């Protein structure tokens, strides 16, 4: 049966006709089946936890399977060709374990489908903060997209106009990230304003209770800034979040604060470090080993941009965001 997956693959691999996944310290291509792969991960990592299904889904991709790769506010589609590769020195995100694919193109350029053109449920599914997700239930809609691409050569997108839009979006995100890092906003000082921004974004995502916890709420160096739970949506997992307002590198301290947090609510919760800064490959590997997810500055502004229409007016004012139409002549 054909598999349909969302894979948050590094964009750097698009030009190489590949998709990539993390686990930099494990060479997937050395394994013939998922059983031996899972065993090596557990032997080296101590556990695999909630990532088991993601690992199995990625490893099991075969020829003719379909992959959707989210990029900014669009999605690109690829057909799996097969063949696994391992690039231990890959430095453009989590993509050391790679699979050859064929991206759907027009005139030599990868076709980007705006997420706004997708049906609501599929668009919402692509917003999940997970690296790999099963899209089998959306197979009919994805097949319809592929039918349009195969018949008309694209998805009725005016490429030049779309490129202008994307360039404007990129410029906006770069300016927003720069302002956040330099403190050139009217968010509350001392990191509180950034925590309140993350709190609002999580509430938009559907979390019914998002609490900013008191400082130094753990024992010793352990600490959590935000706890989020959802009583109404079983697909939203409880979160414990460390929020860092950094202009530069966020180090392992943020990871350690979550690792050592041992209160009862931490047992089944997903742990995240959200920072306006960057995180080194070494720290990313350290976080991955301890099953802690990371959102760096560029991903954070992506999250803000995706939810601009839902943010409070006062929040947008604090960020310095105004929304007015802009003419762009072709």
TrEMBL record:
Listed Pfam families: Mrr_cat
MF terms (GO), sorted A to Z: DNA binding; endonuclease activity
SUPFAM superfamilies according to UniProt: Restriction endonuclease-like
Gene Ontology biological process: DNA restriction-modification system
Matches recorded under InterPro entries: Restrct_endonuc-II-like, Restrct_endonuc_IV_Mrr, tRNA_endonuc-like_dom_sf
Organism superkingdom: Bacteria
Restriction endonuclease type IV Mrr domain location: 190-304
Protein name: Restriction endonuclease type IV Mrr domain-containing protein
Organism: Acinetobacter pragensis
